[in-house]
Amino acid sequence: MADYLDDSVKRYLRATGPDHDEIHAAMADHADECGFPIIGPDAGGVLRSYAAATRAERVFEFGSGFGYSAYWFLKGMADDGEIILTEIDKEELAEGERFLAEAGVADRATFEHGDAMEIAREHEGPFDVVLIDHQKSRYADAFELIRDELAPGGVVIADNIFYGAVDYEDILPYVESGEPLPDDDNTRGIADYLDTVRAADGFHTVVLPVGSGLAVTTREA
Length: 221
Ligand SMILES: C[S@@+](CC[C@H](N)C(=O)[O-])C[C@H]1O[C@@H](n2cnc3c(N)ncnc32)[C@H](O)[C@@H]1O
Known about the structure:
By secondary structure, this protein is an alpha/beta fold. Helix content is about 45%, strand content about 20%.
């Protein structure tokens, strides 16, 4: 759970937040063993909520790892909904296929190995929800790539806005008063992403201090 929260707030959130089922618990154990950065149950619960609220039939992920976030989406999506997972690491994607098969939902998932940006160009929308969780320096380009493919009322969710490869305290002076950013691709990538989505006509963005921090950008209906 994110380090920017007070300990008692973390305990409160964990005690009241979404729970793992058996498959999610096995995935979380696997992430612990490998030191792999999954989105976690609180942010996962947000993915599930947006999938349910939009009655999502099509979801696209930039950076799926071994399917932890995708499994949260699938829990909220329409029964006949399809999620497209993208992952540059073949082994991780294969693990994702195994986990989602074990959960009985692999038939609703398309597993695409390769560069998420290239794969996004090959899949036409409309998408109801999109998750951006790959290279921070390419978040803004990912948004530009899919913004016109988003259904009206559709949502783009980007992870690591506070934490994980970046520290929000490095971005704060820039967003508050335009001070220069540190010379770091990840930090600059997140700052650029926030500038891009906040300036996008016809979209509204809110940053949620959940998990590692989510930026939720909704297309006007
Ligand atoms: C933070 S992890 C994703 C975690 C996943 N969304 C979850 O919560 O379960 C980021 C993943 O993006 C993958 N990745 C990095 N660059 C990528 C690219 N260009 N295309 C596809 N995947 C990429 C990494 O291999 C890594 O597995």
